[in-house]
Amino acid sequence: MDELRAVVGPTPRSGHGECFIWKSGTDVVAVDAGGAGPVGRHAGQHRPHILILSHDDNDHIRGAVSLIVAAGDQLRELWVPAEWAILVKQLADSSPDAMLPQDDGLVNIRDVETELGSWLSELRQEEEFAAGQLRATISSAELTLAAWTTAGSSAGDGFRLVDESGSFRQWYGAKDLAEILDRVRKRAKPLLAIFSAALAQGLRIKFFSIDRALARGGTPWMTAGQPGVATFANALEAPHALAVRMPPGLPRTYALTRITVQNRRALCSLLWRAPHTPDNGVLIWSDTDGNWLDHLAPSAVTQLAKSLSATSAPHHASGNSAHDRVWQTLARARADLVMTSAGGQKNQSYRADYDVLAARRCCTWCRPNHPAYQEVVAISAGKRAMQLKTTCLVQH
What we know:
- By secondary structure, the chain is of the alpha/beta class.
- Helices cover 32% and strands 18% of the residues.
- It contains twelve helices and 19 strands.
- Helix 4 runs antiparallel to helix 9 and helix 7 packs across helix 9.
- The radius of gyration is 21 Å and the shape is globular.
């Protein structure tokens, strides 16, 4: 019996966090790891074979290390965005005692993103990285982070970063160098910890790139990952991501930490319940904003949406307009599609498209008595459908 389970639990921010468990036959896949260690440990008890982390928002990855440890030797692979590898490599290539350029300069986050996308889409065949190479890269990156300090960093005080709109902003929204460094450490350290935990458990780490998929077109889900088990609707594998070398130094590092968390680069996981085609699949949209839908074989994506038997609610079912494009695609889905939602905040505005699903939706906020761990479950109900074990209350 196939099963899609949405899981949340106690987090630093009440109700926040997202984790899904997909079980199909003997295959178990976890998508994201919740917003706290206890959630990850709880999810790890489902003994997934693959852990997919869609992007590095805290409410999606804070439980990852605990999940990796709790899953034990059952867990075999970790799938993450390729940008994570590039950030770690860029940190490793940065000199600990040269965090800023000597001259005034300018970094435009759009230029960094374009450069990053170009590298990923044009990666040539090189020797695939080995675990030892990643381990050494992580060690160098950790040394850089530990050594960077604001003391004696007057050089480059005129350095500016430009945001996505092209507006000039001193330190790109941070009030000073110390705040930038704090933000970089808060973003980079969890990724380094996740990689270290994965290597300690002997996991195979696979990097996936949306830029790579967009550059090649077609239908990535037919080849990316393990067709018939788990793959992506919007990304292709980038096994040589550690070959990408961005210019060293804190400004580029800061720009990269802004890019790794962007919803436009969040992986969109497709979980299959058929051996040869994605019919009756389940999509975990995570926080992806869906902008890629108009560029990546849109007619094929529409056909995929029509074949889904279940889906997660984009961005915790919130009314955030950034996810309009995803909801437009889901409007073409089957009439019996069921939708689950994990996390979110109790006082959030719910998307009208979600509320009108009525008996075909369920969220973790609607569990009675709010136990320590809240779960909602969809199970297979024949060849062409899934059904919810519980449904949402009429009013949230």
